[in-house]
TrEMBL record:
Alphabetical list of InterPro entries matching this protein: Peptide_deformylase, Peptide_deformylase_sf
UniProt-recorded Gene Ontology molecular function terms: metal ion binding; peptide deformylase activity
Enzyme kind, highest EC tier: hydrolase
Protein name, UniProt field: Peptide deformylase
HAMAP family in alphabetical order: Pep_deformylase (MF_00163)
Gene: def
The organism's taxonomic lineage, starting at the top: Bacteria, Bacillati, Bacillota, Bacilli, Lactobacillales
């Protein structure tokens, strides 16, 4: 199981590299990578286990964050979130955003990252709705539409696969700048 000691932090070049596509059929190593990333999210969202293993809770995790420069990420929206009607749980392999809404969105409380051991305040403007294509552990292609919170998380994770960190998107001159066409939500 991954612990915080296994998480790569800012300064580790793996976080700024473009990841390589994952080949199918999955090697045992790649399958285990995906399963262990999802396991981290599940454990980190359980208050007891999160405390027991001294984890920082997460709703997503990307392979570079565990030192693997591979195009794979796990997403697990918390059940109690505002999206309980559409909880999203997926191990996304070779994910590609194939369309973005013009409408932008951001979380009012900004974003955080396991690989960034500090608060970086500011709105992280992203597309409010996206269509993502990815393969699952069996290699099956999926094409899904995400909006609001799950869309934000997916973009945060897919950014990791391209060497981007959330604060790269924060407006340097005015971190909390709002433009009229953006939606902000908790
Ligand atoms: O890449 C994944 N992490 O760094 C895990 C920790 N961060 C979060 O769970 C998190 C927190 C707030 C907003 C977003 Cl979008 C995310 Cl993703
Ligand atoms: Ni992150």
């Amino acid at each position: 199981m991954y612990l915080m000691k296994d998480i790569t932090r800012e300064g580790n070049p793996v976080l700024r590299n473009q990841t390589k596509p994952v080949k199918f059929p999955l090697s045992d190593e790649d399958r285990e990578l995906g399963e262990k990333m999802m396991k981290y999210l599940e454990v980190s969202q359980d208050p007891e286990l999160c405390k027991k293993y001294h984890l920082r809770a997460g709703v997503g995790l990307a392979a570079p964050q565990v030192g693997q420069s591979k195009s794979m990420a796990a997403v697990l929206t918390p059940p109690e979130g505002e999206d309980q009607k559409s909880p999203f749980k997926a191990i996304m392999i070779n994910p590609v955003i194939i369309s973005n809404s013009v409408q932008r969105g951001a979380l009012t409380e900004g974003e955080g990252c396991l690989s960034v051991d500090r608060d970086v305040p500011g709105f992280v403007p992203r597309a409010d709705r996206i269509t993502v294509k990815y393969q699952d552990l069996e290699g099956k292609e999926h094409k899904i539409r995400l909006k609001h919170y799950p869309a934000i998380i997916a973009q945060h994770e897919i950014d990791h696969l391209h060497g981007m960190l959330f604060y790269d998107h924060i407006n340097k001159n005015d971190p909390f700048s709002k433009t009229e066409d953006e939606v902000f939500f908790d």
